[in-house]
Specification:
The chain has about 80 residues and is mostly beta strands. It has a single domain, classed as OB fold (Dihydrolipoamide Acetyltransferase, E2P), CATH 2.40.50.100. About 0% of the residues lie in helices and about 50% in strands. It has no helices and 8 strands. The strands form 2 sheets. Strands 1-8-6-3 form a 4-stranded antiparallel sheet, with no helix packed on it. Strands 5-4-2-7 form a 4-stranded antiparallel sheet, with no helix packed on it. The termini are close together.
């Protein structure tokens, strides 16, 4: 199991915009480089990308949660 960690502190989002589908659903295939979330820092948006290939097993934080750098955001089963 691999955790996707936050590269920066900010607000974490699981979907690109309100009302849009989640970036990943449990069971979705994930390729290295896939976007699995979004972090907002002072009106700047940073894509959170998977660093490994596998199966998405879920988000570890809620949509809109304040997170710190290095916080685990999601898990991928290798």
């Amino acid at each position: 199991m691999t955790q996707v960690l936050s590269p920066v502190p900010g607000t974490f989002y699981t979907q690109p915009a309100p009302g849009e589908p989640l970036y990943k659903q449990v069971g979705d295939p994930v390729a290295a480089g896939d976007v699995v979330g979004l972090i907002e820092v002072m009106k700047t948006f940073i894509d959170v990308k998977a660093e490994t290939t596998g199966t998405f097993t879920g988000y570890l934080v809620d949509d809109g949660a304040a997170i710190g750098a290095g916080a685990p955001l999601a898990e991928i089963e290798d």
